[in-house]
Design brief:
10 helices; 9 strands; 51% helix; binds magnesium ion
Length: 283
């Protein structure tokens, strides 16, 4: 009896796992199809200069609307793409899309694209990026690549070599989600990032003493090493005031704009430039 019961439990767990595995396989297949059909889109979120409020760049964020499940977050499908070897193709497609889209924006607005650590594995990323820039005609100075702390953990030398190569092309390299991973401060000795993006968790708690202290320390590091500091996830006026006061150079978050479709961002940037021109005339 006990044996049968135990067998039942084992059997139950197996079925659960089979279902999860089946589900994953299905989603993987759907993702493969979506990539092949070019159905992964980019939404764009503005990043503003902390002192002038002008839009300096827009971050490209991948979007997938599944035919039956609806929108699936990039946190889910990007990791799935990484696990099943699809990120190489997807990453390349998104890079091209971001460059092409940015060509419709004013010249002084850059596009920021997130990279996955896997994209550095083949050691061909710098050449791939150079090729896309040449083919699309986007000025490399208008491209920013965002990498996370986890990137630098494996194959430090190989990664730094590629980052330096990209930088030599005129591309800006940003450290994303800073403070949440396992970044050793010694990376800053070996490679100077153009900007560091403070993770949303610190920004959310900016009024709390401990978070404030961490933010101030990172800003101090940024000022000494000539790195801009971008605050991510700014949602309130109070957060904005505190972050500007503390010395963040750039701000991003729902307060300034949510990620939006590419046509909407084109309109927004057009009106934004027009308002700049008219404020210059009236000034
Ligand atoms: P991330 O690069 O740190 O992007 C910022 C995330 O914060 C985005 O979530 C954005 O929508 C969200 N966000 C922006 N402002 C606010 C705010 O004021 N409040 C709150 N609560 N959230 C805000 P999203 O679009 O879901 O992207 C999640 C992550 O997925 C990204 O984090 C990035 O790591 C990854 N990801 C997105 N697109 C791509 C891509 O094209 N390639 C790669 N490799 N990763 C991507
Ligand atoms: Mg990012
Ligand atoms: Mg981030
Ligand atoms: Mg993130």
């Amino acid at each position: 009896r006990a044996k049968r019961g135990g067998g039942g439990i084992a059997c139950f767990f197996n079925r659960e796992m089979d279902l999860a595995e089946h589900d994953r396989r299905k989603l993987e297949g759907d993702l493969r199809l979506a990539i092949a059909r070019d159905e992964i889109d980019l939404a764009y979120q503005p990043v503003v200069c902390a002192s002038t409020g002008r839009i300096k760049s827009c971050e490209a964020l991948a979007r997938w609307t599944h035919p039956s499940r609806g929108p699936i977050g990039p946190d889910i499908f990007i990791s799935l793409a990484e696990e099943c070897g699809l990120i190489g193709k997807l990453g390349k497609d998104l890079l091209r899309k971001a460059c092409v889209d940015a060509l419709c924006w004013p010249d002084d607005v850059s596009v920021a694209l997130n990279l996955s650590a896997n994209q550095f594995r083949g050691h061909t990323l710098p050449q791939q990026v150079a090729k896309v820039l040449a083919e699309t005609g986007l000025n490399p100075r208008r491209l920013q690549l965002e990498v996370t702390e986890s990137l630098v953990i494996t194959d430090v030398e190989g990664t730094l070599r590629q980052l330096r190569d990209l930088r030599a092309q005129g591309i800006q390299i940003l450290m994303d989600d800073f403070g949440t991973g396992y970044c050793s401060l010694s990376y800053f000795q070996q490679f100077c990032f153009d900007k560091v993006k403070l993770d949303r968790s610190f920004v959310r708690d900016v009024a709390v003493r401990e978070s404030r202290a961490i933010i101030e320390a990172v800003i101090g590091l940024g000022q000494k090493l000539d790195m801009g500091i971008v605050a991510e996830g700014v949602e309130t006026e109070q957060q904005m005031r505190l972050l500007v006061e503390t010395g963040c150079t750039h701000l991003q978050g729902y307060l300034f704009g949510r990620p939006m479709p590419k046509d909407t961002i084109v309109d927004l940037l057009r009106n934004h430039s027009a308002s700049q021109a008219s404020s210059r005339i009236t000034a």
